[in-house]
Design a protein that fits this description.
793 residues; alpha/beta; eight-stranded parallel beta barrel; 36% helix
């Protein structure tokens, strides 16, 4: 098979090596640069990637190993202190050294590499070769020439960054977050040899304008560096450089470009590495992804019967891996772009937040890597003294307004569609009472509707008559008498999303019969299938406001501990807030202030009717997931408005405002919106508590979110349907016993995890010397061969 590779970087050369070793391929590589030309300094590779390289070609692996730096620690420098976390396992090699290893191996295998030669047109190569591989980087000429074929999209970040080197050899992966009078500048650094380290300087655009614009070297030629900026970076990080020099190599300010492509192959042409995808430098290495691509592509060509099948298999194998990496990289990139929000955190929380920013590293994962590091952060979070046992973050008490909760777990409001004429039934007692017995700090009702025509479905509950009030009082009294949980009521009006079927009969589908007229801010239906709502008059708005007030007073008589106003998910109050559903031209429409007017009028009226000593929360949709709708910036303003009117908590959900939304689903996918609101409006600013909700399903994620300061509480829905005792089981799985997770007396015998299979006694002695307890690896890169533990002493 004749194969042409456009691009002689690590990905292209490594693919050539792998294909040549299979012995059935004639491989030619085109590289426009000289063999010794390279831009950048060191590249980081994971143990997983190195394992694949070792298995595929021990010769390349051995040559790389001789040139590598290895270490385990991450140092976070913040406000004059350093926090160290170990057990991470890093390996790095100079990009020039890696290229030399691969170039030498290509020569050994007789691979033709044309240096200083521009690659022929891809169409010409396709006609002459069985396979053409475009490994020509982020600026791929092959991809750019055929945009429609590959469906490429490029997203440019907001921060500026610059690649540099230094002849100071760092002992660990180093983050240095420097707060200057003109803004925050951060340094990412790591060793890659016994002589040098890589440094990336990064800052926001406003800080760059204030700090670097006057030092910036304009109109740089090919290969030239911005020496004015390099000089200032050296001054800013003089303490970290400790007298060492900064090394420049075509170093200039850039904004990171994330490349995504809909298709990686067309006919016998395929993209590899940065030509197909990029991931922000703060999470990984483009070289790492390119070499992994090469491994997968070579294997698929070997395993599959023809090129077409091999390319399809390659893309099917690698795309999910790359997509996962890009999601993590996007979260990490956003964290550094928003670092101003976090620099005020206490250093233990800041370091934990930084290390878990991508959501790939979590609380439990860090406990495995370095339990002492997590324990120090836990002690700070729960205020435990040096002798006290640190408590998992989820089991630390919290207050919402004047309401004390034993833990930070909330059973999210979930419609169960089981009411009769709006009156809750025994099912609600079992449902909510069971969740309270399961140990959550706060249990929320489903949306309790303020009027018959404010229901979503015929099965929705209400609170507009005495029978309903009596039924809810029975539920509240059971929760108070039988558990340590508190119970909150969520009140709302369906608006244009009303008069629909039960969820299992067709969610948001209109009723065939027995429906009722729907209303909204404007005559805009939720979807083409749903009824057109009647636009509410100012008088009707006052009437609906009074219905909210009446329901709130009834809820107070029932004894609910907290009231939440439902202003999310496209129901009536939410539909006023979103410009996609509110086209009014009166005082209740227009800009955000006008669109918020009616929801705030309802909030104020309910707040006055609701007992002052009991807290109020508001649930909002922090994005409509649709162009032209509410976005993350607007969500901060919405949260700030409700906080200014006295909201004690903001419950941050997203979407369900328009039927043609495009949510970015994923694990904890709504948490970034809660994070932004908390760190812009919430508790760090003496604001309301912030509740995160949305695909949070593990106690590990709950602890990660809380300890990093992304939210004050976490609301979980489906996990509590799967396991009503989710909170108590989470305590048992963490070996936690304490006031944050109290088992009912009737269940106490089950508070220990049951054995699930055969257990054997102690294993026989097979070692001559017993091994000591497992401890955190704190190996640091020291080319002299000595090592030390930075946490000792």
């Amino acid at each position: 098979m004749r194969i042409a590779i456009a691009g002689g970087g690590p990905g292209g050369l490594y693919l050539a090596v792998l294909l040549a070793q299979l012995g059935r391929h004639d491989v030619t590589v085109w590289e426009r640069n000289s063999p010794d030309d390279t831009f950048g300094f060191g590249v980081v590779l994971s143990d997983e990637t190195l394992g694949g390289i070792e298995q595929a070609d021990p010769v390349v692996f051995a040559a790389m190993t001789q040139q590598m730096a290895r270490w385990d620690d991450i140092d976070v420098h913040h406000r004059g202190a350093v926090s160290t976390s170990g057990g991470h396992g890093f390996a790095a090699i100079g990009r020039r050294e890696l290229l030399r290893v691969l170039q030498h191996r290509c020569a050994q295998l007789g691979i033709t590499v044309h240096y200083r030669t521009r690659c022929p047109d891809a169409a010409v190569l396709q006609a002459e070769h069985d396979l053409v591989v475009a490994a020509d980087g982020v600026n791929s000429a092959v991809r750019a020439a055929r945009p429609a074929d590959f469906g490429a999209r490029v997203e440019t970040g907001t921060n500026r960054y610059m690649w540099l080197g230094t002849d100071r050899v760092f002992a660990a992966f180093t983050f240095d977050v420097l707060e200057t009078p003109r803004g925050v500048v951060q340094l990412h650094g790591y060793p890659y040899s016994d002589r040098a380290s890589t440094i990336v300087a990064e800052t926001s655009e406003p800080t760059w304008e204030r700090l670097f614009r006057d030092r910036w070297t304009r109109d740089l030629g090919p290969g030239q560096s911005d020496l004015g900026s390099v000089e200032l970076i050296a001054e800013l990080f003089a303490d970290r450089l400790a007298g060492a020099a900064l090394l420049a190599n075509a170093s200039r300010w850039s904004r990171f470009r994330t490349v995504r492509t809909d298709r990686w192959h067309v006919d016998n042409l395929v993209l590899l590495g940065d030509a197909a995808h990029t991931a922000h430098f703060s999470i990984g290495s483009g070289t790492k992804l390119a070499m992994e691509d090469a491994l997968a592509l070579a294997a698929c060509l070997h395993e599959q019967p023809d090129v077409a099948t091999a390319l399809a298999a390659y893309e099917a194998e690698r795309r999910p891996v790359v997509a996962s990496t890009q999601r993590a990289a996007a979260a990490s990139q956003a964290w550094f772009e928003d670092i101003d929000r976090y620099v005020g955190q206490e250093r233990q929380q800041f370091a934990f937040n930084l290390l878990t920013r991508s959501r790939r590293v979590t609380y439990d994962n860090l406990r495995t890597r370095d339990g002492a590091f997590v324990e120090r952060a836990q002690r700070w979070f729960c205020g435990a003294g040096p002798e006290a046992e640190p408590v998992p973050p989820m089991f630390t008490p919290v207050r919402i307004g004047g309401l004390a909760l034993p833990n930070r777990v909330v059973v999210s409001a979930m419609d169960v569609y089981s009411a009769r004429e709006g009156t809750p039934t025994d099912f609600h007692l079992v449902h909510l009472g069971g969740k309270a017995l399961g140990g959550a700090g706060l249990v929320m009702t489903e949306m309790v509707c303020v009027s018959p025509t404010g229901r979503i479905t015929p099965g929705c509950t209400g609170l507009w008559n005495a029978e309903q009030e009596a039924a809810w009082r029975r539920v509240v009294e059971f929760v108070h008498a039988s558990s340590h949980s508190r119970i909150g009521v969520q009140i709302g009006h369906s608006g244009r999303k009303g008069s629909t079927r039960l969820m299992w009969e067709g969610i948001d589908e209109p009723l065939d019969s027995g429906g009722w007229p729907v209303v909204g801010p404007s005559a805009i239906p939720y979807s083409a299938r749903n009824a057109v709502p009647r636009e509410l008059t100012a008088g009707e708005l006052r009437g609906i406001r009074d219905e909210f007030v009446a329901s709130a007073r009834a809820a107070a008589r029932c004894g609910f501990d907290l009231l939440e106003l439902h202003a999310a998910h496209g129901y009536l109050l939410s539909s006023f807030i979103s410009p996609l559903s509110n086209a009014r031209t009166d005082r209740y429409g227009g800009e955000l202030d006008g669109r918020l007017r009616f929801p705030l009028e309802v909030f104020d009226a309910v707040r006055e009717a609701w007992p002052a000593e009991r807290p109020m929360s508001v649930r909002i949709s922090a994005t409509d997931w649709h162009p032209g709708g509410v976005d993350a910036d607007a969500a901060v303003d919405i949260a700030r408005a409700f906080a200014a009117h006295g909201a004690d908590a903001i419950d941050v959900s997203t979407g369900q405002v328009v039927s043609d939304e495009a949510p970015e689903f994923g694990r904890s996918y709504q948490t970034p919106f809660a994070d932004r609101i908390r760190n812009s409006v919430g508790r760090p600013h003496r604001g309301p508590a912030v509740i995160a909700v949305g695909a949070i399903s593990s106690w590990d994620d709950v602890n990660s979110i809380l300890l990093a300061g992304r939210a004050d509480l976490c609301a979980l829905g489906r996990p509590h349907l799967y396991d009503p005792q989710w909170t108590l089981h989470a305590a048992a799985e963490q070996d936690y016993t304490g006031p944050g997770a109290v088992w009912p007396d009737q269940f106490a015998a089950g508070s220990r995890r049951p054995r699930t299979g055969r257990t054997d006694g102690p294993p026989p002695r097979l070692d001559f010397v017993r091994r000591g307890p497992v401890s955190t690896r704190h190996a640091r890169w020291d080319p002299t061969g000595s090592s030390h533990d930075p946490t000792a002493g």
